[in-house]
Amino acid sequence: MLVVDDEDDIRELLDMTLSRMGLDADCAATVGEARRLLSENAYQLCLTDMRLPDGDGLELVRFIGEHCRDLPVAVITAHGSMENAVSALKAGAFDYVPKPVSLDQLRALVKSVLKLPHPEAARSESAGQALLGESPAIRQARGMIEKVARSQAPVYISGESGSGKELAARLIHEQGARREQAFVPVNCGAIPETLVESEFFGYKKGAFTGAEADRGGFFQAASGGTLFLDEVADLPLPMQVKLLRAIQEKRVRKVGATGEDPVDVRIISATHQNLKDLVAAGRFRQDLFYRLDVIELNMPALRECSDDIPLLAERILQRLGREAGVPAPRLTPAALKALALYPFPGNVRELENILERALALIGGEAIDAEDLHLAPLAAAAETAPHLPEGGGGPLQDYLDRVEKQAILDALQKTRFNRTAAAKLLGVTFRSLRYRMERLGLNE
Description:
The chain is of the alpha/beta class and 443 residues long.
């Protein structure tokens, strides 16, 4: 280990703590000395203070990122200085430890670093849940996942509904140091507002009617692992304040408790909504947004990866066939062409729904274009305004018009029964609700 701090007593404390863990440490008091040691030796972790006589910790984080790419670096930040911690994480730091240094937190951080898998080993271990495809957008997302997996920084995953945000979160967990611990997914929009705090932080016996014993929450369940907050934009504002404190202090207070308990979780959040717009509208706290959005990963829409549709469809059909105990059918050229032309507003989730329905209805060994039942959107595309000759007009605007017209037609046919309209369109009710909200059809 490499310890960089200009205070003798802190260097000695950290050296002694690491020694008791069976680890050797070299110590440096300046950025210059640290650079010299890095050029002469190979380390498993660099632990550096933010303030140094000839520079700062961020300078060292960037230097290591350029010259020792596989070396995790953690920073020691002043108490309450979350801006420095976030800046270090954005610069590529593995994690941070606030002052006064908690030896328990330090030991947990070191243990996490020692559990980091080699990138090649991480890829092979998570191959069962791979992000399939070779389109540029998918390759970029896959590379970003591998990079952020070797950090403890909070990750915010953006993308449309059905684009694979939870899969990306699981891959980050499985390729990182916490892969042997729990991955706890939470749908923030599915928890009643009155229960949010107790579900997240747990409660003490007698805290309220029905609390007959102490119970942990999501943070306790994810201890040592990863907490995935799906649809984080749906959290009520009072809970956003409590979540921000829990993330910053790495401590939580159970409902009815007088003291706080330390927690060690990595936060990954996601939503199909635009968090920046919600911040501007006052519906999401700006300070929590900056704390969650340390690293942003955007999951591409399926229409951006149309070349990957044949591979995805084949893998989905193989899985569905195994689950149903039948041979996987093949897609005819006409079916593949129809899928390639379809805009997939529901992304990969919609592709799965379409193929599952087709598998249940076909009587042969092949799925043809008509078996996919893509007619509603195809018909809408024929009547929708066409792009001018030579292009013109953003593609997304055109697709939104097609999607909006298809939804309106389906609602008209079903007398505005949303459940029936979703079935007619071949999407889930939840997916239809999201699309209607995005397109302003709920007004």
